[in-house]
Specification:
By secondary structure, the protein is mainly alpha-helical. It has one domain (2-71). 59% of the residues lie in helices and 0% in strands. The protein has four helices and no strands. The longest helix has 14 residues, at 41-54.
Length: 76
Amino acid sequence: MYENLRRAGSQYQIMFGAVTLLANSRLAMEASEFARDHGKYDLYSEKVFHAYFTEARDIGRKDVLMELAGAAGCAA
């Protein structure tokens, strides 16, 4: 599946990494609502997708989400 994603994404300069973990995205989805309330939904979502699909990070971890939210300008 990921080989097909890499092939399809390459024509749009989207790089998919070697995702080996199926992360629990519930916290990421909850945090996206916080980001929406602060006008940062698009930027936050972009950072979460990049972290998971390109960097193969665990977006189910609170510390990862806090880092991404901070990078998107979402203040707690």
